[in-house]
């Protein structure tokens, strides 16, 4: 896991270099008549899909629905997706439910795109277009470089669909920022994790997918119940569950959500909740200077992954082989 985190910058550099191929796909798709976008993925790929949702809705102004593959596999109900944009995200490209959902969407008349690491896979075969992650083989059960690659490839696709020069420039800077992020030390969180009964990871908007991904890794690798939640939702029901034994890890982006995240951070500190905040003038975690809010959530994964990997080893856990898990999970 440690070595694969370190490969993330090179993975993203390859994705940036493949921009001409992504641009060609964007030009061939023709989303002008698309009524909506459907994003399909599970686990870490699903978290990349949450990130993609906010990008599509804010940059392309297309409403996005998260696909429920069981509608196809269990309920056997094909959806009316004519002219829709259907984007499936998968590392292995082998899960039967993602294969079936992609096949059904294409048969219904959707423009189907697969963002996959394994380009020679059934999911890629079912899609009309393929955007490769090209992360190489990942040996750790816990996905890291493929998640970062999935999010970068998603951002690259939206940059071309929207002809967004600012997002293209941010992606050009991303490999170097990922490399610099390897030096960020978030080990201060570890002391609170050792005595935690549960952890809340919070962010808003473009950061929500990363919050859910970090929460998954805390559960998967440190075996600690964790929930990734919108910072807006944390102001509602889940707030009642906060205590001295439920630290909050929160990420703040320099965008329209910043003020509300800052206000929540101040309230949590006043209530003596253990808060670890990344970003902004009141952040407690080491961070780089702010960059584009569409790429900073990707960069924030690097120090979080490193902290989780190192904490696992300190507690005698094997971060590469969590119990009762396999690298490829095939769901129906």
UniProtKB/TrEMBL annotation:
Matches recorded under PROSITE patterns: SIS
Keyword field contains Nucleus: no
Domain named SIS: residues: 25-167, 189-322
One biological process term in Gene Ontology: carbohydrate derivative metabolic process
Nucleotide-binding recorded as keyword: no
PANTHER family in UniProt: AMINOTRANSFERASE-RELATED, GLUCOSAMINE--FRUCTOSE-6-PHOSPHATE AMINOTRANSFERASE, ISOMERIZING
Protein name: Glutamine--fructose-6-phosphate aminotransferase
Protein species of origin: Bradyrhizobium valentinum
